[in-house]
């Protein structure tokens, strides 16, 4: 972290993949019980936080097209305002490369990054546990990005256990489709009774994505994309989609697959990481 509190902070807000996702039940409040393995990636949106002297404003600029009040970045900063101890305002710039509705956790990651960096710049003094709890108000995936490690998750995603995953290479493809998470979780065809598994089983590469069958049914273009990807390796949907991914042992293999998929889809290659780059900025 820069010595001067007035220095801008630039950081990558990382994407995630769900290496597997089992839905084991539905609670009375409508939320789903699940088990999933979160893999962080060394690829994501760029965020720049610039303190502004003599103001309490939070100014947000971004290329998402969202109204400010609907943007999780602005909402995350506002959650911290009552805890603010520093007199500076903030200018936050978000440069998105992660597709919205892609299952990569972009909005949740942006919100978590905001909580972590603004907590520091505003000298709020909140612990990681407290920030993760605040993050739950913004979305189920926000806490994993706040804690900043690849993780095994249970409950509604709030019961997190940090794990060390092989830092494999992934090719990720997107069919230029926005998938509504709410629509998938509300679908009658969604599997909601998977038997509970274990971390050990998930780490061994077993498991599936229970959302995939429903997404395939509702979005034929995503089904076609996954079928195309399967010709290059075992492809899976991440989250509720729309992105699919394939894991490779080397960057060269991933780049080769990406070149083939790029004829028809937006693609990127990224390496799995076990610690968020945001954590490194906060600890510096």
Looking at CATH, which topology would you report? Ribosomal Protein S5, domain 2
> For the CA atoms, what is the radius of gyration?
19 Å
End-to-end C-alpha gap: 5 Å
Gross CATH architecture? 2-Layer Sandwich
How much β-strand is present in the residues? 25-35%
The largest sheet, given as strand count, sense and whether it forms a barrel, is: 10 strands, mixed
- Class per helix and strand makeup: alpha+beta
Per DSSP, the total helix count is 10
Order of helices and strands, N to C?
EEEHEHHHEEEHHHHEEHEH
Which spans of ≥5 residues are poorly predicted at pLDDT below 50?
Answer: none
Quick description:
Catalyzes the phosphorylation of the position 2 hydroxy group of 4-diphosphocytidyl-2C-methyl-D-erythritol. By secondary structure, this protein is of the alpha+beta class.
Question: Characteristics of this structure?
Answer:
single chain; 284 residues; alpha+beta; ten-stranded mixed β-sheet; 10 helices; 10 strands; ATP binding; isoprene biosynthesis; ATP-binding
Helix and strand arrangement:
Blueprint: E1 9-26, E2 32-52, E3 58-62, H1 72-80, E4 89-95, H2 106-121, H3 128-136, H4 142-147, E5 151-154, E6 159-162, E7 169-174, H5 181-186, H6 199-203, H7 212-218, H8 220-230, E8 235-237, E9 244-248, H9 251-261, E10 266-273, H10 277-283
Helix pairs in contact: 1-2, 2-3, 7-8
EC number: 2.7.1.148
Domain GHMP kinase N-terminal: 71-148
Protein name: 4-diphosphocytidyl-2-C-methyl-D-erythritol kinase
